[in-house]
Write a structure and sequence with these properties.
1% strand; two-stranded antiparallel sheet; mainly alpha; 16 helices
């Protein structure tokens, strides 16, 4: 019995008044919860202190240097938040206070259009980083309300100003910064940063609608706006400056695809973004990023029945970097499709599953990988012996399949 045989074995394998009283009860409960929440918020002490009425006035250069320093401080804090937990709250509060002081100093300079573009870009990046920090902070003790104990929306005006100050800009860096900010808003629950409120809306209607994107699929309006801005940033940039902007665009598409992947019936929109991400990464010469996109695309396609397309995408990722997820998808799909019909292909698939061990994105995938790999090894061993080895399958259906295959082949 040859190895292709065991690949075949694997492949087998009173109402009006009642309604009135209920309505009154629900309304009373809602009012009670509202007052309870308000009382809860009132018990918290705001971790941001009162601002001095006359902060020092800085020159544009000094203000830009201060902005750059604050951005660096926020970047370093973001790396520590997941490990520091509650210990990060004082540092976060200090930086949010520094942001408020910077905003006052920023407002005391000349009119917005006379401010250097680099300063306005830095200001928006500073707000983007600050919002991201507040989303990641633990909701405990002084931050139980998610706003460091302060009023919800306390920093909303700062964010609105930073966005509006760049809206008329058409430089590549400004378009990219705006795109990143709208992208960050689109992938995070807007209510997750109470200190900044719900954030600006792309259509000024107070809610986020779903619109058609450039691929003909549906996505949130702020996400589509972000993608349009990021695409424009690449298009208007000089060739020598495009690589970094392309990579920023690609990374944001990854976040969009991930966010859409978990939305009901939005796998097509997600797949389009993985495809676009892979193309952008390829254009920028980043094989690892392109392979990452193709591997995620292959897994998404395999989960929604597009096996041939999934195999093609997975093979592309494997050709680039031997991506572990792509190897797992490729091996399991080719096995279930009956495409492992030679000794070499079976041995290669076993090797791919072995190489992916411990590197898959979820425990469920790891368990499935191990199960499939162990079964492949078992059938491999059975294929080399007689009918008596069929009893080692430990399963009546598998024993019958094994026996039939031994008889036929």
């Amino acid at each position: 019995m040859s190895l292709p045989v065991y690949s075949q074995m694997m492949a087998f394998t009173s109402k009006k008044h009642t309604g009135l009283w209920v309505g009154l009860a629900v309304a009373s409960l809602a009012i009670g919860v509202l007052h309870l929440n308000q009382a809860f918020d009132d018990e918290l002490e705001c971790m941001l202190s009162e601002l001095t009425p006359t902060p020092s006035i800085l020159s544009h250069d000094s203000l830009e240097h201060r902005c750059t320093t604050l951005n660096s401080d926020l970047f370093n804090l973001q790396k520590d938040v997941s490990q520091s937990g509650l210990k990060a709250l004082p540092s976060a509060a200090r930086l949010m206070q520094d942001l408020r002081i910077f905003d006052m100093q920023y407002a005391m300079t000349e009119q917005n259009k006379t401010k250097p573009t680099t300063l306005r870009i830095c200001f928006l990046q500073l707000v983007t980083a600050a919002r991201r920090i507040t989303v990641s902070l633990p909701r405990e003790e002084g931050n139980a309300n998610g706003a460091l104990g302060c009023a919800v929306g306390m920093l909303q005006g700062i964010e609105d100003k930073a966005v509006k100050d760049l809206e008329w800009e058409e430089t590549p860096s400004a378009l990219s910064a705006l795109g990143v900010h709208w992208s960050m808003l689109s992938v995070n629950e807007r209510s997750a940063a109470p200190l900044f409120g719900n954030g600006p809306m792309p259509d000024s209607q107070g809610t986020i609608s779903w619109v058609q994107d450039e691929w003909g699929t549906q996505a949130p309006a702020d996400m589509v706006l972000a993608e349009d801005l990021l695409s424009q940033s690449v298009q208007v940039a000089p060739l020598r400056k495009r690589e970094n902007l392309i990579l920023i665009h690609a990374h944001r598409l990854k976040e969009h695809a991930n966010a859409l992947e978990v939305q009901h019936e939005q796998h097509s929109a997600s797949a389009r973004r993985y495809q676009a991400m892979a193309k952008l990464a390829e254009d920028s010469g980043s094989a690892p990023l392109s392979a990452f996109a193709l591997s995620r695309l292959s897994h998404s396609l395999s989960m929604h029945g597009s096996q041939d397309e999934a195999i093609t995408a997975a093979q592309g990722a494997v050709n680039l970097t031997m991506d572990p997820l792509a190897q797992y998808v490729l091996a399991t799909l080719r096995l279930s499709s009956g495409l492992l019909n030679t000794d070499a292909s079976m041995i290669a698939a076993e090797g791919q599953l072995r190489a992916a061990r411990g590197q898959l994105p979820s425990d469920d995938m790891e368990e499935h990988r191990a199960k499939v790999h162990n079964e492949m090894r078992m059938w491999h061993w059975i294929a080399k012996g007689g009918t008596d080895r069929c009893s080692w399958t430990g399963d009546a259906a598998k024993f019958l399949i094994c026996s039939i295959c031994k008889f036929l082949y």
